[in-house]
């Protein structure tokens, strides 16, 4: 039977979490599913979190369940409401809605009650040892630990001391509450794990009410249980915590949430730890959390990636049980897929050389209709002004071209996109031999829609000199030079691998309609790439970030 189920799952291409959920629903183990996304509000979310968000919210959506957003705010020292707000904004932007917004701190009273309950059951005690003594007493994987001299305090004494801890009688580090399990347990986490520590610090939600705070292992599972989370999904490194997660739930006899682990997402040329990202921001290596080179969701958004492309990326990455390093180019591929379908097109020349049409009536402006998206030629269009002086890309002209060069060359013909065919008659140079002007004639009969379509091999983009709008372009490259940032040699600092060319500036000359674009997503600069208007833009000084180039070197 099990075999048969597995085969069906394979045919339907289910990932292991979907298999588990379908089986739990089928067996009646749960009636509906409830997941949660549990960020610690100590930094901005990154693409790894996006993966976890898509997974938690996506699974609930797929199986008619719900997802809570729960802030894991058990460490007041590092946490802040600035992060809470950004996290909520990022999840909404990704296109997900949470059922309830909760905080671990909402449950501090209940967690405290449960801690007393475990004390009363003889399963927890107050330890006066220092952090170092506790660490030393844990032993090693090979050798058992030693029991704390305070381990066998009476229930009454433990209750009294724990209440005094709560009341603020002791300084940070003076006492801790530990579960009383087994100092020789093969799983080190079972050697009397810490449940509570003293931190005299202001909490962004509970203020100064508490000076003892629960540890991860005594908070996460209990919060899951309170919220009736059926499938608590976390990353692989927590698999050793799972037995402890189950232990607390069992001893307290509360709602049996279960934990499942999947591989965290790693990307080439990227660091993902919040500590490192914070350091990049604090030390000015990037302009902020939303610097378009950052792997943060706000950085990615500013860069011009769409929520659709991030969700597509999460889907393609899939759910693995083993560590994975994903090629950054997959993310770019997803952005191209989405933007290719949806983005509006405009012509922008980045390295201009002037092309003059000698048989054009001086001063004449002719407006052409050009579709905003070629996939929808009958759809909305923009108006493009054509005159006798246009900019083309310097790279679209070659004086001594190789054989298969189909762009403009001496005596050659090319179509200026959406308009006429022009023929190169003369090249003008300055004293140093640089080309300053290309003189052409145009063929009036080659106007699109006027008579028979004459085709030439090359079509190039252009912008009318009189109408060109100057843009600042910010061109991004990988933030780091090393693909495997997770395995740099010991003794090396990750900052040594910062790419000095991760940001370069360019100029663009755009057709006027670009500045009227209201699509809200990145646009395509025809034949070049996708670009997204930066919030630094002003009407006088538009700034565009390069999202990704058109060219695709990614192979599945
Ligand atoms: P960091 O170690 O950088 O501080 P974190 O894992 O501690 O990150 P949390 O705010 O605790 O950050 O993470 C919230 C959720 O996102 C957790 O469930 C965590 O497992 C998940 N998550 C974090 N990083 C990744 C990643 N790279 N890939 C997949 N899921 C991740
Ligand atoms: Mg964490």
Textual characterization of the structure:
With 556 residues, the protein is of the alpha/beta class. It has 13 helices and 27 strands. It has helices at residues 2-11, 16-27, 47-62, 81-94, 108-120, 131-137, 155-167, 216-226, 242-252, 274-282, 297-303, 307-317, 328-342; strands spanning 34-37, 66-71, 101-103, 124-127, 176-179, 194-198, 212-214, 231-235, 258-262, 265-267, 324-326, 345-346, 348-349, 352-357, 366-371, 381-386, 389-393, 413-416, 421-429, 435-443, 459-460, 463-464, 469-476, 503-510, 523-525, 529-533, 543-549. The chain has a seven-stranded mixed β-sheet. A seven-stranded mixed β-sheet has the order 21-18-19-20-14-17-22, with no helix packed on it. The model has no long low-confidence stretch (mean pLDDT 95). The protein binds adenosine-5'-triphosphate (ATP) and magnesium ion.
Uncertain runs are none
The profile of the biggest β sheet is: 7 strands, mixed
What general outline do the C-alpha atoms trace? elongated
Largest sheet, order of strands side by side? 12-25-26-27-23-24-13
Percentage of residues in helical conformation: 25-40%
């Amino acid at each position: 039977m099990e075999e048969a189920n597995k085969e069906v799952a394979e045919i339907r291409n289910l990932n292991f979490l979907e298999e588990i959920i379908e089986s739990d629903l089928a067996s009646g183990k749960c009636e509906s599913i409830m997941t949660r996304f549990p960020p610690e509000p100590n930094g901005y979310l990154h693409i790894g979190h996006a993966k976890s968000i898509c997974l938690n919210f996506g699974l609930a959506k797929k199986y008619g369940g719900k997802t809570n957003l729960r802030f894991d705010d058990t460490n007041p020292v590092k946490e802040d409401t600035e992060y809470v707000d950004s996290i909520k904004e990022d999840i909404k932007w990704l296109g997900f809605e949470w059922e309830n917004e909760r905080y671990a701190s909402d449950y501090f009273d209940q967690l405290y009650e449960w801690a007393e309950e475990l004390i009363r059951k003889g399963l927890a005690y107050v330890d006066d040892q220092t952090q170092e003594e506790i660490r030393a007493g844990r032993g090693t994987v090979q050798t058992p630990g030693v029991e704390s001299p305070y381990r066998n305090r009476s229930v009454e004494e433990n209750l009294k001391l724990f209440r005094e801890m709560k009341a603020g009688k002791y300084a940070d580090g003076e006492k801790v509450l530990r579960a009383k399990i087994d100092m020789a347990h093969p799983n080190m986490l079972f050697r009397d794990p810490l449940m509570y520590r003293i931190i005299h610090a202001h909490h962004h939600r509970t203020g100064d009410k508490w000076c003892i705070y629960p540890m991860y292992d005594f908070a996460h599972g209990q919060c899951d249980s309170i919220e009736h989370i059926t499938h608590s999904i976390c990353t692989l490194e927590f698999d050793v915590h799972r037995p402890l997660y189950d232990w607390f739930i069992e001893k307290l006899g509360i709602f049996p949430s279960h934990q499942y682990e999947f591989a965290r997402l790693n990307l080439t040329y990227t660091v993902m730890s919040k500590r490192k990202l914070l350091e990049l921001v604090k030390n000015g290596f990037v302009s902020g959390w939303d610097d378009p080179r950052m792997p943060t969701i706000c950085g990615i958004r500013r860069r011009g990636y769409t929520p659709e492309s991030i969700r597509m990326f999460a889907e393609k990455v899939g759910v693995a049980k083993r560590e994975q390093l994903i090629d950054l180019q997959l993310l770019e591929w997803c952005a191209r897929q989405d933007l290719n379908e949806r983005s509006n097109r405009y012509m922008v020349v980045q390295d201009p050389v002037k092309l003059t049409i000698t048989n054009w009536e001086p001063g004449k402006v002719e407006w052409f209709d050009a579709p905003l998206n070629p996939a929808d030629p009958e759809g909305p269009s923009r108006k493009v002004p054509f005159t006798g002086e246009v900019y083309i890309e310097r790279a679209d002209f070659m004086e001594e071209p190789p054989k298969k060069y189909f762009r403009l060359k001496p005596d050659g013909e090319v179509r200026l996109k959406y308009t006429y065919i022009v023929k190169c008659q003369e090249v003008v140079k300055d004293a140093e031999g640089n080309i300053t002007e290309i003189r052409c004639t145009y063929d009036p009969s080659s106007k699109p829609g006027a008579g028979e379509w004459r085709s030439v091999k090359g079509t190039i983009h252009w912008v009318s000199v009189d109408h060109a709008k100057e843009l600042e372009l910010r061109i991004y490259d990988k933030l780091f030079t090393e693909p495997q940032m997770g395995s740099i040699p010991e003794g090396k600092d990750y900052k040594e691998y910062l790419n000095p060319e991760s940001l370069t500036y360019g100029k663009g000359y755009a057709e006027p309609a670009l500045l009227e674009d209201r699509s809200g997503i990145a646009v395509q600069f025809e034949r070049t790439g996708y670009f997204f208007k930066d919030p630094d833009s002003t009407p006088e000084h538009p700034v565009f970030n390069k999202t990704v180039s058109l060219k695709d070197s990614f192979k599945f």
